[in-house]
Amino acid sequence: MIRTATAALAALLLAPGPAAFPGEIAPADKRSGFAEMGPALQAMQRDDTAHPGMLWVQDGADLWARAPSADAPACGGCHGEARASMRGVAARYPAWDARSGRPIDLEDRINQCRRTHQQAEPFARESADLLGLTAFVALQSRGMPLAPPDDSRLAPARQEGRALFEARMGQLGLSCAICHDDHWGRHLGAAVIPQGHPTGYPLYRLEWQGLGSLQRRLRNCMSGMRAEPYPFGAPEYVALELYLAERAAPLPLETPALRP
Amino acid sequence: MRLGRRVALTLLVLASAASATRAEEAGQPLRPVTIVGDAIPASLTGAAGDPARGRALVLDRTRGLCLLCHAGPFPEERFQGNLAPDLSGVGARLSEGQLRLRLVDGRRVNPQTIMPAYYSLAARTRVARAWQGRPILEAGEIEDVVTFLASLRGPARDQRTGP
Questions:
Q1: Domain span at residue A75?
Q2: Among A80, A238, B2, B154, which residue has the fewest nearby CB atoms (within 10 Å)?
Q3: Which residues, if any, are the signal sequence (chain A) (predicted)?
Q4: How many beta-carbon pairs under 8 angstroms link A with B?
Q5: Global pTM?
Q6: Do A154 and A42 belong to one domain?
Q7: So what's the ipTM on this one?
Q8: In chain A, at which residue ranges do the beta strands (DSSP E only) sit?
């Protein structure tokens, strides 16, 4: 009896690496897509003077300080120094929004401030203004662990996000989990499959030659499965973002990250 | 799950697409296939495939997509995937009929497989508009790939042209 149990245990321990087991990633194995990159790209992400994404962040810093119109305050007019007031904010988004009664992501939050406190038109999703401002706000949390709020009102959407993550879809019938839970670290053609953590967004992708949001990344993965992407801003993305944040915590925030 | 040899089951791919969306039903009907054991013995088109066209499809990363997941005896191809078994010698391991079923719908052999079903519209969700109602490969293309795979008989090295 004990022999068989020992043998079974040994077989488990000797089995190939974590990527061979379907299921969730063990906490000790969690790692950012940063770890999957070569040393040159890692160095570029680490060096703000060489990081092309910092150009967007600089524009975001300017926007933070600029009033949208003569009679409306700048972001900084209400929040003061971003370094102090925005520290840790990005690490806890998506969060519950009492006003709209639903979870919202950081881009939504910024646009709500535009509408309600600045009487200005919301920025379009993926516009340079929204990406820059979001990246500037998230930069203030760089290095802090993701800390999704422990708020029961978020649970249903997070659960929906998990279901979406595990659902097969598209012409190829794949799921996020097949690639990012079961086969991370393996080669999908030329690409190493990362664990799919949302820690770096908005980030600069060499393939995009620009900054892009997490929703843009999710749309790319959906197109790869030949699935119909949801429109930008769809609640399904926020649900996925909620699940991804919980799945990634407590990895540190990297915004703006750099990816191939 | 291996399907027992005794089980001979006729599957109308079109009929099993009952859960597919209306748009998918609007596509060209797929040809009926007959599964015998763990194989589809008969050619989908009634004709043999063209191995050169099959090879091109297998190598094409936007059409066959095979090398995203599989490696194979293609020394000139960089960046082959490692999510799936190496295709070297697969023609010696599996019959043409077995190869055909694994391409048409590998879920018939392993319901959990991650290999896409290349000639089935069954159990699809949220297919992007451009792909709705279409199998991943057409019947003639499936035959081209089957004929090519059947020719991969030796170990990887024997099929290489270079060292």
A1: 54-139
A2: B2
A3: 1-20
A4: 67
A5: 0.87
A6: yes
A7: 0.87
A8: 95-97, 102-104, 187-188, 191-192, 203-205, 210-212, 258-259
